[in-house]
Specification:
The chain has 401 residues and is of the alpha/beta class. It contains 9 helices and 17 strands. It has a 4-stranded mixed beta sheet with strand order 1-2-4-3, with helices on one face. It has a 4-stranded mixed beta sheet with strand order 5-6-8-7, covered by helices on one side. InterPro entries: RNA3'_phos_cyclase_dom, RNA3'_phos_cyclase_dom_sf, RNA3'_term_phos_cyc, RNA3'P_cycl/enolpyr_Trfase_a/b, RPTC_insert.
């Protein structure tokens, strides 16, 4: 059996993302893990919140793992997946949360498993919880940035269906989304996100109380006029704006997604998460538009192929792909942009678990994960090289008909 890998939960970002990536890799590879001081850098003592526990439990069941410490607020877990061949999850999946915990953080935790575990059939994954939750990928970001970019790197296109929205703002409300996922039938080929091109269009998505629709549209149009050159350079601007009634006077959300001539998507958003005081609404709307536009322009100006959030979310796919993949994170003052703490944490976790190392240019040599085989955590350097060589020659399972 592979040697247990200990991950200290206060490392780098020290939040829930470390746990999600580690669980996904552990359940795929069979490498047992122990995580101590879970979310140790978070306030209120850290530990597992409902959203994290949901992922632990689901992945535990899927990979037939032995679990200790899988309870709310737990600060330490051990997760020992079955040493038999990977269980090929093939039925539809329903995950219900009773609070608006982020649907897309649950997706983040289990998607690598669903894609790479060798299941043969297309499956529907329905999750209830929050679609628009602070500090997590919104439904809108996932459908407009993450999923198109996953398709761009070679993941079979994932379809999304929004049944209802769930918010962390305003009165509690549970939402529900179905993702239709076609698992990989052979290792993911390496990918290069290195050609950014110029920005050809920007799509704005506004979720706000209906009575503010016109005001936000006007503010956005003004911003596009003022910042046209910073966004589009010499190109003729292509701008789309959609509006949806958020049905609560505490729910203001804006997402801007820029699409480049090479199909790269960069997104920035903001869910306004303070109370809106009477008489302050004009300032809230103006700040919302200014902040998101400023953030998007920052992403455009660095010249890279991923926004800050996508960069950390692609790390696990780079590590599992076969061979050298590179994701250009852009430059700041001509110097390579330092990866965010979330990205550094993701890179650290894949290094600890499956030995994949990233260089400062955002390249790594992925293991070419093939569901038919598990990785032995005890391999020494020489054996790892041998395995890499074999993986380059390996032929994946036959294509699904
Ligand atoms: N506005 C956003 N758009 C897209 N993705 C986001 C956004 N904000 C955060 N994320 C992503 O959500 C993840 C958050 O990870 P993090 O560990 O902070 O979350 P968490 O599980 O809620 O844990 P914690 O409560 O410990 O912070 C990261 O992958 C980050 O890139």
């Amino acid at each position: 059996m592979a040697t247990l890998v200990h991950l200290e939960g206060t490392t780098l970002e020290g939040g829930g993302q470390l746990l999600r990536i580690a669980l996904g890799l552990s359940s795929l590879t069979g490498i047992p893990i122990r995580i101590t001081n879970i979310r140790g850098k978070r306030s209120r003592g850290g530990g597992l919140k409902a959203q994290h526990l949901t992922s632990v439990q689901w992945l535990g069941r899927a990979s037939n793992a032995q679990l200790t410490g899988a309870e709310l607020k737990s600060k330490e877990i051990t997760f020992t997946p079955s040493t038999d061949d990977i269980f090929k999850w093939s039925s539809d999946v329903q995950i219900s949360q009773s609070t608006p915990g982020s649907i897309n953080l649950v997706l983040q935790a289990i998607l690598p498993y669903l894609l790479f575990s060798g299941a043969k059939k297309r499956m529907k994954l329905r999750i209830t919880g929050g679609t628009n939750v602070s500090n997590s990928p919104s439904y809108d970001y996932v459908t407009q940035v993450l999923l198109p970019m996953l398709a761009h790197i070679g993941i079979p296109p994932i379809q999304s269906d929004l049944h209802s929205r769930g918010w962390s703002q305003g009165s509690n409300s549970l939402g529900s989304v179905t993702y239709t996922i076609k698992p990989l039938t052979k290792p993911l080929p390496s990918f290069q996100l290195t050609k950014r091109g110029t920005i050809q269009s920007v799509q704005a998505t506004i979720l706000a109380p209906k009575s503010y629709e016109q005001q936000i549209r006007d503010e956005l149009n003004l911003m596009f006029e003022k910042r046209e050159e910073a966004i589009f350079g010499e190109r003729e601007p292509e701008i789309g704006i959609t509006f949806e009634d958020s049905r609560h006077d505490k729910r203001f959300y804006l997402l801007l997604v820029a699409t480049s001539t090479t199909g790269i998507k960069l997104g920035r958003d903001w869910l306004y998460d303070h109370g809106v005081r009477a008489g302050k609404i004009d300032a809230v709307i103006s700040n919302l538009v200014k902040k998101v536009a400023g953030d998007l322009i920052g992403e455009i100006e660095h010249g890279g192929c991923v926004d800050e959030y996508l960069r950390d979310q692609l790390v696990v796919y780079q590590a599992l792909a076969r061979g050298q993949s590179r994701v250009d994170g852009g430059r700041s003052n001509r110097v390579l942009k330092e990866p965010s703490l979330h990205t550094q944490t993701a890179q650290w976790v894949v290094g600890e678990l499956i030995g994949v190392q990233f260089d400062e240019e955002g390249s790594c040599d992925g293991i070419g994960f093939d569901s038919g085989r598990k990785i032995d955590g005890e391999r020494n350097e020489e054996e790892k090289e041998l395995v890499k060589g074999l993986e380059k020659l390996a032929v994946g399972p036959p294509e699904e008909k």
